[in-house]
Protein 1
Amino acid sequence: MPMKSFRGSLWATVLIMSAAMLSGCNTTKIEAPAVETKKAAPTPAKQVYHYTSRDRECLKRAMYFESKRTSRNGFMAVGTVVMNRLTSGAYPDTICDVVAQKNQFAPGVMTRIMDEATAPDLEGASEAILKGERHPDVKDAMFFHTNGLKFPYKNMSYVAVAGGNAFYEKRGRDGELQTPEPLPAGSYMLAMAQQETSAPQLALNDLTKGPAAPQVGAQEDALPQNTATQAVPVPQAMEVSFEPAPMLVPVPQPKPIAGSQQAALVRQLMAQRSLYR
């Protein structure tokens, strides 16, 4: 094979391979692997428990009468028990109903007189409970008794001692709660109930006012405008005469004449006639 012919065929082969490679670069599409994105799970809405000023008072009463009133720690422990009962579903659904439930809290808890001067931490502790703070050791406890007392029950699992009371949960031998579990403190919130707005009352000066005067200007604007001058008839005064009704005057009736008087009158008339003859 001549050298020129060999070189020509070599160059032709190189050109064909280059064209094939260029063609492959232009048509081959390399796709990146799909990346799976994970969406964040939506945060569940917190359950809201509404309370009134009366509920706040009931909470303070339970905290006041169920502790020795010597420390904020005791107030917070009792307040946590009240909230645990409220959110467990096994007790009434308002703070006052929980505290007032029969044979559950101290006798007279709803009626006895409080002396808040002897419990300076009571107000702040009750506000803290309503804002979500809880005693860290009480946990799920919904029961307590005076510290130092002993009971034979095997399901009393003690968790804390505070304010002169021993707090406990009821758990079985397997360690499981024997009562409905209260909601965790961070899963719900307490909110002050909106006060009912009273209907607007009519002011006293509004009662003494007469009806509003008509707006003359507004009425004139509403009437169609007429540019032509029109004579307006003026009503004429009319004379009205009134004739008084005739008065009825009784006519006196002649009195009857007696017989002797009548004879005398006849004689007198006869005498007068004789004078004119």
Note: Residues 33 and 97 are 61 Å apart (CA to CA).
Protein 2
Amino acid sequence: MVSWSQIPPEIKRHVVQKLDFMSRISLKNTSHLDRQIVESTKLYIPRARFGYKDGKSLVVIYTGIEKFLRLEIEKCGNGVVIQKSENSYNHSEFARKFMPSIDTFSLGLFVLKSLLIDKSINIGVIEWDLPEESEEGIIERIVMFLSPARFHVKEMACLWNSTESFQSFCSQIVVWEHLKSIRRIGVFPTAGSLKPIFIHEDETEFKGRPYYKTSITMSYSAELFGVAFDFSFYHQNPICANYRLKDGTTPESEQFQRKEEDDTVTRCYASECGTWEHKMLKENEDRLKQRLDSQKCGTSWLCEMHADPFDYWYHHNFPLRLAQEPGWNAVICIGSEFMLGLDHLFDPMIKAAEEAEEKRLENVILDTSTSSWGFRRLDEGEVQRIPHVMGHKSDEEKKTGGSKAGKPKGDLNGLNMRDIMKCLEEVGIVEDVQWNSEDSDENSGDEEDPEETIAHSESSKQSLLQKFQLFSFIFLTPIIVSFVFYFVSQLISFCL
């Protein structure tokens, strides 16, 4: 039976394309060649989340509709508790592990960086939950921790209450050429409904990229939002103020309208999907109208027919966070100054979210397959090594006043691939990794091109084959010639 190491790289690539996310991570770190194969096989992650508040970190990686990996880290007594789940918000299904005291913020960022910063991984959106009242200097800590590594991501998003310096740090942690937009998003509570039907957003620019401030509601009042439309336009100074309404029209009313008012112009569109309007200064119309006119459906992810299926599912589940993730539901604008006097809407919305979540769970098909990530059992010796691997001083190092690794306490940067994988094993992110003998610490840190490495491997095999053929020719030729000479001489003797 052919072993994995004997399979050609081209075949391995096809296998890698079929693997789930965590299996790719594990395979990537079994040998140097396998790592190069994984890195040469592109993977798309539609969305990821990172949150930090009150000493707790959250990492969520979405791989599809109703498919996600969730990791929550929080302090507990003299240590921390790590909770992991897959495709479920049910606390009874969470896998938990208690560990020695580790900085929850650094560990959360370390997991995010280790799993997602890779040139083979393209991410649709990274959503950051960093409340404005977060610890001072949190943005600077993120930049310092991630640098110089950068995400390959199309959109950076934050919640409505995130720190105002959010957009300024985007350029420091992403590959700027890949970034298409920046967004600040919030959901306004509405009693009696959990289905988003209206989007209002202001569009400005930040370093040449569109920067959206997006508000989502589950109801629509033409008079109220007409006032909000004008207010945001004249006070937020957007390049374009947009609103999108999921309210289908009759075919007879499907037409384009252009309205002028003083120095502004509003371009109105309608279809069976809904209506959408864009208000802008006249001086900006020429550079925007081609993009606006090209929209087949301007209702964005409100429209199930034209929206990306994942985006439609994800955004329609925002209200359910009230029931699914009570500690991480800041996307709902509870406490916003715009909602003063409307507190009576929150309780009905929470109740409706809980009822909707119960109905959703009734329709969930029980998955009996093995989880793609879980906790492994650690012996006492392994538990004692965890603080050192995570950049913390061991008891022995505290006595000597130094660190064997030469790193400051809590610093997880600078670890080589072997240490990184050991750390991820300890916290249960990946299964045990059996390192191939061909790998060394030096190899693990190389930044070689995957295609060149694989090509080099193939050329090495061909070179070895050529050497074998040459050896065979030199060794066997005299034997064959002798045999032929003997056969011919015997044949002549027989004939005579």
Note: Confidence is low (pLDDT under 50) at residues 336-340, 375-411, 432-447.
